[in-house]
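FAQ
Q: What does a multi-component entry look like?
A: The components come first, one per line:
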Amino acid sequence: MRYLPLSTDDRAEMLAKICVENINDLFVDVPNHALLKGLVDLPNHMTEMEVEQNFEAYSAKSVAAGSVPFFVGAGAYRHHVPASVDYQIQRGEYLTAYTPYQPEISQGTLQTLYEFQSQVAQITGMDVANASMYDGSTACGEAALMACRVTRKKRIIVSGNLHPHYIDVVKNLTKFTDGVVVDNDPTLNKPENLIDQVDDDTACVIVQNPDFFGNINDFSDLADALHERKKLLVIVNTEVVALGAIKSPGEMGADIVVGEGQSIGNGLNYGGPYVGLFATRQKYVRQMPGRLCGETTDADGKRGFVLTLSTREQHIRREKATSNICTNAGLCTLAFTIHMTLLGEKGYRHLAQLNHAGTVKLKNKLAGIDGLEVLNETFFNEFTVRLSNNAAEVVETLVENDVIAGLPVSRLYPDRPELNNILIIAVTETTSEDDMDILVAELKEVLK
Amino acid sequence: MMNNQGRPTGIDGTTETSNAGYETYTGNRGLAQVEGLIYEIGDTQRTGVDLPEVEEFESCIGGVTRDNEIGLAGLTEPEAMRHYTRLSRKNYAIDLGLYPLGSCTMKHNPRLNEKVARLPGVADIHPLQPISTVQGALDLIDTLAHWLKTLTGMPAVAMSPKAGAHGELCGLMAIRSALEAKGDARSIVLAPESAHGTNPATAALCGYKVKPIPATEDGRVDLDAMKEALGPDVAAIMVTNPNTCGLFEREIIEIADAVHAIGGYFYCDGANFNAIVGKVRPGDLGVDAMHINLHKTFSTPHGGGGPGAGPVVLSEALAPYAPIPYVVMGEEDFDMVEHDTTGKSFGRMTAFHGQMGMFTRALAYMMSHGADGLARVAEDSVLNANYVLASLKDIMSASFEGPCMHEALFDDRFLKDTGVSTLDFSKAMIDEGYHPMTMYFPLVVHGAMLIEPTESESKQSVDQFIGMMRYLVEKAKAGDTGRFTGAPYNAPLKRLDETGAARNPVLRWTAAE
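Then the predicted structure of the entire assembly, as tokens:
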């Protein structure tokens, strides 16, 4: 077995040193009937080549986004990741390192985390960011819990234009700790009135920008109104490239910003692993969940980095911790940081413009199609259209012609027939003009 | 010069002079290079990507534009490669040496797994693209689920939890939902004193109070104390098995029976599943729910702190309450159930479907080993740990009688009167080229040192580790405290001021005023 170095002779020698006769003597504490007499009912070991062939077969049975004109976004985006990012994250020193609890021999991971926290704080326009959460949706759930801790209130008002999965995660994470989640209906392109729902028991309002349907809002007035009432504003972002073009949540007055960082450095991976971004104001730092990396000095006065403020965390505070999170998205944060460093201010803003420009182009190309109406007045790289036909059926028809046309929102709102004809279309820098023209032609055909 | 194993380390007489005390212009010491932050070596004008020109267009941002400079530092590609390569060399890693971190299972990460996780039909598929276009992915998830159910002897598995603690939350939420369905939510979860911190933290997230159960003198759950604590208000007991002292809970069946007798559930923390995989099925021990850290037992890389994956196997009683989504086999194709139609599922734990990238790696690891290889994984990991225990117990203080499972627990009695603490001892291991073992955990012994070599280590490697440990113990006992109290001396940095870091937190770079 190629991964197991002990030889038969080694095993015999080691058993002798331990003074037992055979390996099962080391399993004596297992109740006798529970120790398996034979092997479990699964195939035996395979060669490297056989395993690889198995996975090539799995891979061949799915349609890779890059192999067809592809327009699905809705919280996960197909961007181009430079080759050097994937090379670096496969270096054994990063890939096979543990959580950096021993700072003297973990400065590589720690310094990259510090760079990550700095970049996330900058792009969100906030004071501090943590070293990542599992993904955007769980970060959003944790933001709701944190807002409840800060305000000592339990009511969470959630925008109807927040990603439906995020709404579900907030509901789930707060359900057994007396959280009260106030739902709203999706409004597509209409403004929402959230401030009137705020009462004394309210902890926070959670909104998304750009929202699930692609609309861009300036939440500055909402932030002011909430702060007057001593409530928190949580702003969610699921397409982090957008923050290279639109006003940051911090500039709008958000108290907590959470986001999905997958777009930078990380592939689609069928939904995970991704990287949850979590940023807040300095005054709330001790209420944050998750790991934090901080600057310090070593015994010689040299600068170094350590995990810090761990008295918030489960391994110290146990049931009084700010969260139960332990493992985070380590390697995905590294991919994010390296990609962001390669972009820099200039590349990040350029990438944002490129995404927006492409999306505007597709919107214009779709303008003349009968049976299709673009609903957004504002958008970044994603917009919502109303079709004359059932959107899920349209998408299925186009799949047969090797086009993946977008997300029929009925997949996420099965109980809202009024949304059956709604489709969300996303464009990134990877979308070519040919892709757009094919989509336009296919939609014309199917909607005629 | 020869080291203690008789291997040459340098030309006689020259090794001690290589690091003479003079300053260098750069601050570098040969290959030990100083590396600044991206903000110190880069700037906002530099970039390492070439992007196509943006054609003229009419903005639809609606005036909500970002006008101020963000301040992001950029590097060109050669600069970025050098920066991150230099930083990488300041890390310890499995690829560099044995990682004896108890309860963390730092085993070899096969590169085949990285390769297959990057296949386009796995890595480049979107979680919301049509189900008809992701049949391979659903097949893969279903196959992994089958392996996990077979290895644990459990009828169901929830795949979406993102890591171990997320899996614990999944299990406890299923338990609470099952109890609430009977109109009996209850309010208490029992957990041994030796439990991971995530156990009580998770119970609190589920609205439960945690009552600690003491350990017996032989390092196991005190069954009498546990029975004493059981009552109609106890929802569950959370037990790690093998436990965090590295021991198999001999009375595990009695524990399960006792909690079942009062209508509660048995949550098993599967962090230490590596010791028994392929040898013992938790389903045969009365377990109702158990998470499996794919980043431990099934070798998905730790990546400096994640990502992990924490699927949870569930008993028949808890399966109806499992979170959405889950994969089912339809008449011809696989399908993904994304909305609860039974009214029983406790809800959604995360956007999308879980850690696909980790599923792929874990399944590749499982297929590579097979039923025969996985049993051998458990055996070799237990053998290596017992070999360490047998080879060190005469000179260090083993906390409990063996045999142990895949990790061996020592405490600091052997350091009594030496002036050397567990922390100092661990830091001296760094100077010997090793990552320290898990220390000060579990909390049930004083100055704990928990050593888990894993099955990835050859006998030669374990022998060197043992030799190193014996050497350090002898030095400590001989009063050679200097090498301990200020250690490490040979790492990229000396001991860091963690107290100062917490007192005055500096958590991000800011431009000088």
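Q: Is there any commentary attached?
A: Sometimes. For this entry: Chain B touches chain A through 205 residues (CB under 8 Å).
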